[in-house]
Structures are given as C-alpha cells and as structure tokens.
Amino acid sequence: MKKLSTIFFLFFVTLSFAQERTLAEKLGYTKTDKLLIIHADDIGLSHSENIATISSMTEGFVNSTSIMMPCAWSTEVGELIKDHPNLDIGVHITLTNEWFNYKWGPMADNVPGLQGPDGYMYPDCASVAKNASPAEVEKEIRAQIEAALRIGIKPTHLDSHMGCIFYGRPEFLHSYLKLAKEFGFPAMVVPEMVESIIKTNPELFKDIDVDNLLVIDQVAIASPTIYDEKGMEGFYSDLFSNLESGITALLIHVAYDDEEMKAVTVRHLYWNSTWRQADYDFFTSEKGRQLIKDNNIKLVTWREIASVN
Amino acid sequence: MKKLSTIFFLFFVTLSFAQERTLAEKLGYTKTDKLLIIHADDIGLSHSENIATISSMTEGFVNSTSIMMPCAWSTEVGELIKDHPNLDIGVHITLTNEWFNYKWGPMADNVPGLQGPDGYMYPDCASVAKNASPAEVEKEIRAQIEAALRIGIKPTHLDSHMGCIFYGRPEFLHSYLKLAKEFGFPAMVVPEMVESIIKTNPELFKDIDVDNLLVIDQVAIASPTIYDEKGMEGFYSDLFSNLESGITALLIHVAYDDEEMKAVTVRHLYWNSTWRQADYDFFTSEKGRQLIKDNNIKLVTWREIASVN
User: Where is the signal peptide, in residue numbers (chains A, B) (predicted)?
Assistant: First the structure.
C-alpha cells in the first residue's frame, strides 16, 4: 500500500512538474530567459508591405510574419517567399478592412455577416462581433487558411488582425483554436485569453486541450500614445532594455512610406505609412540589432514553438 | 387617294432620313467630321492608375474613362472625382483578372462560373465564355453598376474590360445592352457587333431597340506590334493624321511607371507600367494636343452621346 501511494505521489509530482514547465523551458530555455518573436503583421496587405516585410526579414532582424489573405496583394507573397522557404509565416486571420480607399471582402462564399453594406469587410472588430455569426467566422478562417496553402505557404502559426478573434465572441476564439489544431500549427494565445475566455466557457472549449496550448507569455505593440511620445526607436529601445522573461511576441508593421502606402493609409494618423517606415528602419538598423545583443534577448520563431508539440 | 399616297411617301422619306442620320449628325456634326473620344480604360485598377488617369483628364486631354469596380482601389475613385463632378466616367465591366500578383474576384454573390479555382476571376475572356453562365454575367454586370452608383459615380456609359462582353456569348452582349438601358446610359457598341451578334440573334435581342442604339463608328487601340514598331507617340500621331470620319473611341491605359504599377503588371510585356506611362506622357503633351488641333479633330464625350437620346 505504501509502495502504491509512493507511485501515486511520484506520478502527481511528475504531472505537476510537466504542467508547470513553461513554454520557454519546453523550448530549452530557462524560466528567466528573455525570448522574443519579432513579428511583422500584415504581409499581403499591399505591394509596399510585402517587399518591405520580406526585406526586414532577410536584411533586418524581423523573424516572423503573418499574411492577410483577403487582400489584393496576398498572392504576391507566395511568389516572394519561394526563394526563402524557411521564413516564419503564419496566417493573419483578417475579419476587418480598416482603410478608407483600399478595399477587400471575405474569401469565403455566403458570409454576409462579415460584409458591410458595400460588400467589403467592416472597419472594426465591434461591427464584426455584432454582425458575424460564429459559423461565418469559422468558415472565413478556414477559407483564409486554405487560400494560404494554395499559394504555397506552409503556415507556422495563426494570429488575428486587429485582434478581432480575441475581442469578439468566445466562439470566434474557439474556431480559431479548433482550426489551428485541425491544420496542425499553433495559434497565438496569451494567458489572459485562457483565463478570461477559455476557462470561463468550459463547455464551448471542451474539445480544446487547454493544458497543452502553446501559450506565449505576453504581447507588446506600439500604441498611438507611445508613438507620439517616444517614437518607434524610443519605444523599442525601452522595451528591449526592460523586456520581461518568458516569450514576448512583439507585433510590428513594416512597409515603405511610398505613394502606394500613403494612399492605403490615407487619413489614418497611426499605423500609417510613416509608422510602418519607422518600424522598417528600426528593425533593419544596426542599433536595433545591437540592443537585442546587449540585452541578452534570444529570438525565437513560431516554427520553433510549433516543434514543441 | 393620291393625297394619302403622298402622305405615305413623305412619311417614308422622313423615316428613311431619320434612320440614315449618323450618330455624328445627331450630335450636331457633319458626316465627314472626325470625332474622337479619348478614353482611358481601367481607372480603379490601382492607386497609380487612379491618380494618373485623373491627372490625364484634368491636366491632359483625355476626356473619358471607365472604372473597374471589382479592384481593391476602385472606391478611391469615388473620392478623387468629388472635385471633378463633370468628368466622363463609365463602368468598365470587368470579368477577368489578368495580372499575376494582384487579384480580385467578382462583386456579385454566388457567381462561381466567374471564379477560377482560387476564387479570383479568370485571366482571359475565353475562360469566362467557357465557365460563366449568362445569368452569372448579368448578375455581375448589375453588381458592378450598383457598386459604382454607391461610391457616387453617375455613369456616363458602359464598356467592357478586355472586350469579354463582346467576344463571349451573345447573351453577355444582350445583358450589357439590357442593363445599360435599364440604368439609363449608353453602352459602347460598334457596327460589327450589331451585324455579327445582334442581327444574327434576333430572338435574343428582341427587347433591344437596335435602330436607336448609340453605335459609335470605330474603336482604335494600340497593339503589341504597333507598340514595338512605332511606339505610342508614333501610333497616335499616325492615327490623328489619318483619322476616319465619324466617332472613334480611342482606348488608352494611363498609369505611372512606379513601383506599384511595375508590380501589378509584372512579367507582362504589353499594357504594362511603361506602356501606361507612355500613354500618360503623350496625352498630357503639348505635341499631342497640337496634333488634335492640326488634324481638325473634335473631341466628344459619352455624356454628349448620351444626350442624343
């Protein structure tokens, strides 16, 4: 009897230990290591975004990106990555079209809840949450993943444009996790989503193995206030100097401040062409690269994270 | 009895005279006048095409254009024309997507015959004629006209991108004429279409008042051979010096040879960014303007043609 209880005790310790191993540790790092994914959102959006993002990954030190499949320029990415088969590239699930003069609609057929009166996607997540049914969102996520596969992308991960998957209905997050699992790659999630959405809807998420989700520790992103007060270089320098331990996904947006991008982002004060050029400049700069080294930050990719499972 | 026959005789002479009046005469010109519509196809295609086309109409001597509604940049045109409410702008019914890396699909819902396996439009008219049903094409024509109206365009005419309406099935031409009539503006047709399509399918076209169609006399357009042998300036100089009498629609394509347009037209040897820049250069040049004067060519617009009915 004592022997049996010892076995049980050891079993539970092992189990508990397994559960408590952080994702960083599973990747072979320590709990206190500072790990960073430098992730350029929005490739596929425009020609300018495409060539600047690829350049920031091949000439600079951006190490991951994700594609907006519904945009007119997404298929160009399939061609651009042919010479760079190992780039980290996920599917940036896109449910919104936020620009005034540059448009796209859903990829799936018969998803009227994802279309405004003009047939294009809504400009904001609130409208998506209000108008789109969970079934329509799931259909659209699937259509976007399948479209990425068709142009030769082997997605390393899923994430969400403007976060509409996370700030919409819990069913949206469920479909996102379910389809990532079905297609066999991780989906970006942070602990807050697990606590506030998944654990509060156990019935909805019962088919998701929550304990084995590849949950990164935090997301960092420049905000309008930060941009106005510190500028991009100031923000990233501060971030790198004070980076928390664990895995941080730093979400940036890389494009050139050229005629096309000025017109795409016209009348937007933030996330516009100058913002994206500032991101390009920093993440291709020697100064930025040196700050990564000086702060002992280790760059990790979604491909490495996916290899954990 | 004699009186009655005289009345009949006069009636038939009048009728015959009315029928024989050319469109040029109905516009107040003589049969031998050389009338020209300088028509820039493809506004809406890209930002570069949009701003170059507007510039060629406001700074140069292009006097008509037509919009490709399914393209990502079409709504920008709604904004660009606000300051130029009298520009001649029609709907360039678009059933094809001919570029390698820049994509669009249909505007109508549930028109799978207009979509290739990737969901975008086919690159050529032959595939449209083979795969799209007349009902789908009619639905798409309607969707494109309605989309143009939604962004504030008051269409002056209809025409057809790459001529797919004319070289597809006769039903396509029928829907095009039927919807132009329904919405109240002329649709570009030339005598060959009347003879070879309309008159050979009288049953199909029985609801079209063929005798009162606003048929222009001819279309002129640069071809790859002409482009290679004479260049744009050579072609247009020759054309203007030898212009036939009646109404000619000269179809040109105006954009800048910039990064966006180079990428839109990548690997296309013709109708590409340098071709479109050459059109822009000629139709904003003093030389071109002088040639119009020297050859006593009178510029007419679709708005004027529409006023005939």
Answer: 1-18
At B10, list the tokens. Answer: 């006069």
User: What does DSSP assign to residue A274?
Assistant: H
User: In 10 A of CB A227, how many CB atoms?
Assistant: 19
Q: Judge: B110–A107 Cβ closer than 8 Å, yes or no.
A: no
Residue B83 has pLDDT above 50, yes or no: yes
Nearest to A54, CA basis, from A91, A83, A25: A83
Nearest alpha-carbon partner for B176 in B210, B201, B141, B211: B141
pTM of the model: 0.93
Name every residue whose Cβ is closer than 8 Å to that of residue B75 and which is 6 or more positions away in sequence: A100, A101, A102, A103, A118, B151
What gap in Å lies between CA A94 and CA A71, rounded to an integer? 9
A273 and A264 Cβ atoms separated by less than 8 Å? yes
Q: Which residues of B touch A76 (CB under 8 A)?
A: 101-102, 263
Mean pLDDT, residues B251-269 taken together = 98
Q: Cβ atoms within 10 A of the Cβ of B180, count?
A: 27
* Residue among A43, A45, A46, A47 with most chain B CBs within 10 A, to mutate: A47
Structure confidence by residue, pLDDT tens digits, A216-261: 999 999 999 999 999 999 999 999 999 999 999 999 999 999 999 9
Q: What is the ipTM of this complex?
A: 0.91
What domains are defined for chain B? 23-306 (3.20.20.370)
Angstrom distances, CA of residue B291 to CA of A80, B211, B250, B283, B295: 45, 34, 15, 11, 6
